[in-house]
Amino acid sequence: LVIARYTLFLSPLFKIKEVIVTNSSSITSLDQHVVEQTFQSLVGKNILLYTPHSIRNFGFSAIPRLKDVQVDMIYPETVRVDVAEKAIVLALPGKDMFGLVNEDGVVVKTTPTLDSPLFKVSVKPDDTTTLETFYVNQQLFSPDQILYFIVGKALLEEKIGFTINQA
Asked: Which of 41, 105, 134, 167 could form a disulfide with 141 if both were Cys (CB 3.0 to 4.6 A apart)?
């Protein structure tokens, strides 16, 4: 019994030697190195003391921008983690940058050009000015407002038969 316990919990046989992290998001806003480093803290720990559920919860608590975390335990020494970020749904045109907003209404990235077609929304706090400066992690909209943008745009496109690219 003592040998079995030692083999299961203390021997290097069941220590995690490799954590493979992939990001399956179509548009990424997170630094891949930061995501990998977050899960690399598992290296050297006993794989039998962790479950896919516990690693998944750890990912959500460490990186709030994640929408999904899939974990595969490849016994005896490898963990494969596939993360998906919350979707980027809006682009906010600024002076010389676009602010990319995820489904929670948070600006998650700024970029000088758009690589993919996103719905562009100009923010006007009053009649004379347009908000042109955006900061990463700035909460500009509530999730309900984002849902309103997306559903409203889809319903309007359905009614008029044209694609809306900017509002």
From this structure: 105
Number of neighbouring beta carbons within 10 Å of residue 143: 13
Over residues 34-45, the pLDDT tens digits come to: 899 999 999 989
CA dist., res. 70 & res. 80, Å (int): 8
Please, are residues 116 and 165 in contact by the beta-carbon 8 Å criterion? Answer: no
The DSSP line for 75-139 is TTTEEEEEEEEPPEEEEEE-SS-EEEEETTSBEEEEESS-SS--EE----SSSS-------TT-B
Count of C-beta atoms within a 10 Å radius of residue 135: 9
Q: CA angle, 25 as apex, 103 and 158 as ends, to 5°?
A: 50
Give this prediction's pTM. Answer: 0.76
Sheet holding 98-102, edge to edge: 107-111, 98-102, 88-93, 119-120
Q: Give the whole-angstrom CA distance, residue 126 versus residue 100.
A: 22
> Is residue 150 classed exposed, middle or buried when 0-12, 13-18 and 19+ CB atoms within 10 A define those classes?
middle
